Amino acid sequence: MQKFILIVCVGTLMVSAAEPNFKTQEIDAEVGVGYGLQIADMNGDGRSDIILCDKDKIVWYQSPSWKKHQISGKLTQRDHVCVAARDINGDGKAEIAVGGQWNIGESNDGAKSGSIFYLNPTADRSGNWAPIRLEHEPSTHRMHWIAAGKGKYDLVVKPLYGPKDADGKKGATKVYAYHMPKDPSQPWKRTLISHMIEDSHNFHPIDWDRDGREEFLQAGLKGVYWFGRDKSGKWKYMQFSQNYCGEVRDGKTKLGKRFFTTIEPKHGTTVAVYLQTRFQFWQRRVLDDT
Fold it and tell me: How far apart are CA 5 and CA 33, in angstroms?
């Protein structure tokens, strides 16, 4: 079996140095397939820990010793594929959601493809946490806890593909926001955010207008889209670009101008940056295409 090694780079910035110095530290030489990583405080000690979505388990590494803790074994017949970790109840300790049953070739049959679990922690947060299965769409691929305002969070989940048409073409994905009940073992309500973007590999949360409710940027076949809520809580969207892309991240320049970066196309070799010119008009520049 092919093994992967989880490595972290620890950086120190010297006052007299122009660039930070990094050293490599191996923390796990027995990773199966590391589909996803999250950084969050898992035990409330104020330190950032590493949460790993391995193909057949969910583990976290305790900073700074990187002691390994397993909180779930294999949840689905096929591989796990994504994990979301964030403190959503204010106790200083991250809550965990997991996506599994990864089946890239199946986007119609939910029994064969996709799954979503909330991991309900044990009293002392040790051992395997109780998996609570949520309703899902086929081709589960990425998820984030996204701030909904007033201290609440939604679990937003995005498939990779939508169902295939009769001609075999993969359709638009359904992106849902899941609302956790007071008792997480009870049914979760969900809200449809969108059903329009094809071949969407990733998305990125951000509090765009600093109102305590987060928005997100989503990469897909026809470019980058922005999704956010109006005052009534209804989701709306804007299209920012038209180039096929698989990854998207945002930032601001020193002068406060917004930008976002992409990898084009999905799993591609072009790194592009889009600079905001006026309102929501964006100028594309290629940083690297090697």
Answer: 9
* CATH fold group of domain 31-197: Methylamine Dehydrogenase; Chain H (2.130.10)
Q: How far apart are CA 27 and CA 150, in angstroms?
A: 37
Q: Tell me the C-alpha distance between 47 and 40, whole Å.
A: 8
Number of Cβ atoms within 10 Å of the Cβ of 125? 15
pLDDT digits (tens, 9 = 90+) for 184-221: 999 999 999 999 999 999 999 999 888 999 999 999 99
CB count, 10 Å around CB of 289? 10
Q: Which value, in Å, is the radius of gyration of the alpha carbons in the chain?
A: 20
Q: Is 230 left (phi over 0), alpha (psi -120 to 50) or beta?
A: beta
**Tokens linked to 20:** 């930070």
| Residue in the structure block whose two tokens are 């359709």 | 171
pTM over 0.85: yes
User: Distances in Å between the alpha carbon of 39 and those of 36, 61, 87, 132, 139?
Assistant: 10, 10, 11, 22, 24
Cβ–Cβ under 8 Å, residues 19 and 29: no
Q: Are 26 and 5 within 8 A, CB to CB?
A: yes
74-126 pLDDT tens trace: 999 999 999 999 999 999 999 999 999 999 999 999 999 999 999 999 999 99
Q: Would you place residue 40 in the very low, low, confident or very high pLDDT band (cuts 50, 70, 90)?
A: very high
Percent of the chain with pLDDT over 90: 86
